[in-house]
Amino acid sequence: MTTPAEQIQILFEISMSIRNRGDLSQVAHSGLSTYLKKLNCLAGSIYQLVPCSLSEFRFHELLTIPRRTAHNVGLQASGQFIPQYCTRDEIDHFYASLPITGHVNSNLHYHLMHLPEFGVMTLVKAGDDFDVSVIKTFSTLNEKLANTCNSTVQQRALSDSERKFRLMFESSPEAIVLVDTIGRIMDVNGRIFQWLGYHPKELIGASVLHLDLIPKPSREKIKDAFTWVLKDEKIGPFEVEFISKDGECKTGLTRTTLIRDKNGEILHNLVMISDITVLKKSQRALRESERRTKTILDSVQAGVVIVKQDDHHIEYVNSVAAQMIGLPKEKILGRVCQQFICPSKVGQCPISDLGQTIDESEKKLLKADGTTLDILKTVTPIILQGGEGSFIETFIDITERRNAEKALKDSEQRWRLLLNSLPASIMMVNKNLDILFVNHPMHGLIMEDIVGASIYDYIFPEQQGMYKMNLDKVFKTRETILTENETVNRWFISHFIPIIQDDVVSSVMIISTDVTENKKAEEALIESAQMKNDFVSNVSHELRTPLASILGFSSTILRDKNMDEEIKEEFTNIIYEESQRLSRLIEDVLNISKIEAGSIKYHPEKIKIGPLVIEVCESLRMYAEQKKVNVICRVAPNLTEILADADAMKQVVINLVNNAIKFTETGGQVVVSATSTRDNLILLVEDTGMGIPKDEISRVFEKFYRVHRPGKEIQGTGLGLPIVKEIIDFHHGRIDIDSEVNRGTRFIIHLPILKGTE
Amino acid sequence: MLIKTDFSGTLDAFRLQLDVVLADPKVEGLFILASEENGFTADQVNPLLAEIPVPVFGGIFPKLIAEKQLLAPATIVIGLSKEPIVHIFPNLSTHKGSFEDLIDRTIPDNQDSKTMFVFVDGFCPCISEFIDSLFFVFGTEHNYIGGGAGAIKMPHQPCLFTNQGLLQDSAVLAFVDIASGIGSAHGWHETSQPYKVTESDHNLIKTLDWKPPFEIYRDAVNTHAKKQITADNFSEVARAYPFGISILGTEKIIRDPVALEGDGAIRCIGEVPAGSYVQIMHGDTESLIVAAQQAAQLGQDAFDVDLPGKQLHLMIDCISRVLFLENDFQREIDAVHREGIPLIGAATIGEIANSGRDFLEFYNKTIVIGVMEDE
Predict the structure, then answer these.
(1) pTM
(2) Which of A265, A284, A644, B12 is packed most tightly, with the most Cβ within 10 A?
(3) Model confidence pLDDT, tens digit, residues B8-32
(4) A-chain residues near B356 (CB < 8 A)
């Protein structure tokens, strides 16, 4: 069916179809499928010999056609000849047995063939088997297929390796230029394009010594470097300037290395360039920054020193600091900061020793001349170039400020004391009626509670209307307002004074003075004046009455020479009595005047009050009898002595008993008794007279006060009881009054007994 | 199998055929053959195909064969009692990547069916590559039978029946679990020396021995043919002078030259790989009919089940043989027909056949006889 010529043609076709396609599986697939197609085979496999270990190999099934071979008995039959894991000797033995031809049945044949240096191939054919002559020719085909597979593997490995090196070459962070011995660029990596903007195509073939992108001085540098390198002289990295395609100046740190072949012949010069443009720029910027910083620090109107963190040695000092310390800079540098700043705080640096992150505090600076300055110092840790830790200390002279602060503080304190000691409440409010200041915090509050609050929170509701009206008016008219107001039985005078700032009423000061006592004094004064008027009137009346009697009766006697002697005697008695009365009156007035003036002198001595009481009662008995008032005198026996002025005590008893007789009507009774208790001598004067109204009892000791008794005008000066009160008070005694109108009055005097005299 | 043949080629008749066949509850799938003279279009046919509840495959071909005669117009609907597993491969000519990988990925590895029906758009330029890939995946695990579909009067139209409609530039594979024996032969013989295909693009031969193919072809044919071939009569004369590609130990693979293109390039049905050697072939009525007999015998020999009366013969015959044999084509039908065994088939644009003995190929000018089990 197929002629020998056709056979050759078919095998030639197969041979021609076996080509290196760059990928082993593609080569194998192309080769095997052509075998199958052109040789009319049903199936086939290619096995590649691969190492499993240093001494063991296995046949890896590289490809089988068709893919689904579950029922392919031909492949299964041929596969059993292929060893699994084997040594090189076993493999050689297996290869020596190839080709293996067999059949599953008369219609299905298989062929296992050697692919030299690669592996084995099986072919399964149905129908008539291959002619022997054909099988012989397979070896050439198989060799080609094996060679192609092997070359593909090697080429792939080489390609992988080349790709790997190319990748390394291209992905290098440095620009790499391969230059031949005459300076011509053979290759460059992509980094050059990224860095300088020149495509490799623009550079390859050009001479590095004539490239526009390298300025002339740099070309010379490169030329020298190449010369030295070619002479095998070692040169270190050197800087080269480049001009990028867009005209920017770049700096590269350049190193050159010679590449030689196996025989030591120079092939290429490998030039590696690191882009240090940014580094150079930053170095320049750093230097400029340092210069600028130095200028700034020197022009700062504060002392600045930089000290090393570990040993506190001064690394930098500015002019102001040097001036404050009083030494030239060079004499300060290198010294420990605590020789000048915080001299007594060695080992207590707030940052390095006490762990603070920033220190801002007032310290002392020790000047070179031994004097000190008050300074405000700030210390901040900084990291300088190179990672070295330092502190930057800045300080200013605060001596003047301190003095001013002290003066201000003293002044403020004086003013505050003054305001607080003023007997007036001072409050300042703004336009919103918020309290800005009070000198006497109210309601037990502290100043901070009140300042900022509304004034209405701290004044009585009944005052709010008045305050609002006055504050509105002051803010509007700028006029000071003075008001008098009463609150809770207290009287105040309030001044609403505008505080004008920038021609505007910024606030109002309210000064409130409590004038309640003044008011009371004023009222008392008025009352006192009234009482004096009454006194003058009374005294006048009292004086006029006996004087009128005396004048009347004496003129009658003088005029009537023939007056009956009996009448004359009667008239003379009257004149005498009136004179007595006038005398007493004048004496009372004088006594009270002396008492008030403090000019009366008491002479306390041990006296027995009993005889004194009896004597007074007896002296007044005639007056009582005239009024038909019964006077009973009861003096307890063995009364204890008291320490008292005898005349004053007599005056007391006289005034009380005289009053009792005076205000007791005819038929009435006056009881005078003297007893004692453990501590006191009790003197009691009790009458059955007209009594004192309850609401007037408290006033009976007021001078010139006289109990109102309408229709029952009784003569008197209103001085008797005040005199009694003065005397008893002087003698540390007490007077109690018990009285009921129309029933009588009881005066009880307690006088302390002189201890040890019982 | 339930076979319904219509000689009118109308759409109504087709609809009726479908109704009748589908009414049989035993029918699990449909195999449809239609002639291009029916004029079926996708718009007409797709609604009918969409309603078919069972898997469908088949194609439109230049002519059909049934009832011992060549038919056109005609429609043959075959109801299969075994459910076919149908896989469709659309847009073959624009597919990027390997067909082998596509097929392997698309078809599950559990197809135990004995026979694979393979129909492709006969005007698709990469049929051979697809067919090779089928073999590279499945090998000889199945018997293959099928061919190129399409209309020679109106090429490049939808021509493959599927449940998705009538498709173009596609392939449809139907795995059917029925026994079969496939035989193929062509009857063409060499009339020239071998020429090397020095340049080609799929089915277009660009140079032979680095010369315009038509120059070589013309010289070779004109030394043999009574009628001189020219560019004007190329189709008429060339049908008797196909190319043959040598395969060791078997018949040459025939490539049918169908068109002359610019620069003397010759377009064939089926691919002609560069590097291969081709010879100019020639045949006559007798050689072709002998080949038909051989194909029928090979098919019968390959069919394992010998159950007379339970067979169906499927004849896949190249349309170029029909055109070449003209009236003698009836003799070819008669040569393969066996009394009592239904014979149906189609005149195709290229043929596909394999029954486990040979490498799977896309043939031209070849007759394929499939002896099928008919339960």
Answers:
(1) 0.54
(2) A644
(3) 999 999 999 999 999 999 999 999 9
(4) 42, 126
